[in-house]
Amino acid sequence: MKDRVADVEAVRTTQNHCGDQLRLRVRVPATSANLGPGFDCMGLALALFNEMEVETGHPFSVEIDGEAANQLPVSRDNAIVRAMDFLFAKVGAGRVPREWRLRAYNQIPIASGLGSSASAIVGGLLLANELVACFEPDLVLDDAGLLALASELEGHPDNVAPALFGGGCLCAGAGQGPAYLPLPIPEQLVFAVGVPNFPLPTEKARKALPNQVQMADAVYNVTQASRLMLALSSGQLDLLRVGFGDRLHEPYRRRLIPGFDDVRRAALRQGAKALTLSGAGPSLLAWCDDEQTALRVADEITLAWREYNVECVSMVLRPWLDKPQVERLAPRR
Q1: Cα–Cα distance between 156 and 56 in angstroms, integer?
Q2: What is the band of 269 on the pLDDT scale with cuts at 50, 70, 90?
Q3: 144 three-class SS
Q4: How confident is the model at residue 313 (pLDDT cuts 50, 70, 90)?
Q5: Which residues pair with 52 in a beta bridge?
Q6: pLDDT of 10 higher than 50
Q7: Using an 8 Å Cβ cutoff, are 237 and 287 in contact?
Q8: Three-state secondary structure call for residue 164
Q9: Per 3-state DSSP, what percentage of the chain is helix, strand, and coil (rounded to 5)?
Q10: What is the dihedral of CA 89, 93, 94, 99, to 10 degrees?
Q11: Radius of gyration, alpha carbons of the chain
Q12: Are 247 and 200 in contact (CB under 8 A)?
């Protein structure tokens, strides 16, 4: 009985400590799903971020700065807000405030294959879970619960898992073993990322895929996924040279991307080990083993796309290995 009283008092103390005004901030990385042959089951986090901040004690509002600031909704239909409300409904939170000010600072381009929607979902769930931890701590979700909700919202786990945990993730469907396993990431791995100036919605890219594949293509992908795992675990990125690729999704999606083959050849000429679609595209990921090579490749990707009158933003990004953490900040005055 004494333990129960102590637990109740701890909850009251936590709630009182939160007060009427609570300001939370989280930074969630971009992600690249599939990694070539790891269709719908592999992904990794990249050092490009969306930052989200929620502050209680204010009327509901949404403010967005940065990428797509004028295109994203500022109502409860905003993806971050929908993720927060989804978690509150799932856990049955009744005492968590629903009126708060949300600010988002976006670096991740939308509809680009770099996990902008996964970032919004994960950020919203993490902020909501921290509010639950403050006001109704007995309802807090653990990592597995957060991943399950994120996967339900996104439709598959290969983007949300690395956004939630950082690093590389191998994701499995229900009944296929652990929901995710960390992938090894070599220290020297760095990417040249080309983001063209046209969107490619995931729904359109998925509709381009066939319902069935040839046995030879399935075997090819098993071989290439195994090759990727060996290269990552050993750090021998040269194993990705010559013939590395995918036959389950890239041959169909590359048709939606002007200049894909020439951009790929240009990246390989400048020293990239391989080039893969980032998620469903249209962004392309050139795999490199040093930053100078990645810088050359990034420039070459930009030049190659210009031949097709496609402007792009090219950048050099490292894998991001850290798990996002929600910070509690002093309220704004």
Answers
A1: 31
A2: very high
A3: helix
A4: very high
A5: 26, 104
A6: no
A7: yes
A8: helix
A9: 40, 20, 35
A10: -80
A11: 21
A12: no
The Cβ of residue 52 has, within 10 Å, a number of other Cβ atoms equal to: 27
What crossing angle do the helices spanning 2-18 and 116-135 adopt, rounded to 10°? 120
- The predicted pLDDT at position 17 comes to 52
Q: Cα–Cα distance between 195 and 184 in angstroms, integer?
A: 25
Report the DSSP pairing between strands 61-66 and 100-106. Answer: parallel
Q: Name the 3-class secondary structure at 120.
A: helix
The angle formed by the CA atoms of residues 51, 54 and 55, to the nearest 5 degrees, is 140
Q: Is 5's pLDDT higher than 60? A: no
Size of the chain, expressed as the number of residues it contains: 333
Distance CA 127, CA 82 (A): 12
pLDDT of amino acid 19 = 62
Phi/psi region, residue 243 (left: phi>0; alpha: psi -120 to 50; beta: rest), is left
Over the stretch 141-180, which tens digit does the pLDDT of each residue have? 999 999 999 999 998 899 999 999 999 999 987 677 778 8
| Beta strands, E only, the chain | 23-33, 42-56, 61-66, 100-106, 168-171, 180-183, 190-196, 274-277, 284-288, 312-317, 327-329
Q: How many CA atoms are closer than 13 Å to the CA of 172, on its beta-carbon side?
A: 11
The H or E element that residue 151 is part of is helix 143-154
pTM for this prediction: 0.91
175 by DSSP, 3-state: which? coil
| 3-state class (DSSP) for residue 79 | helix
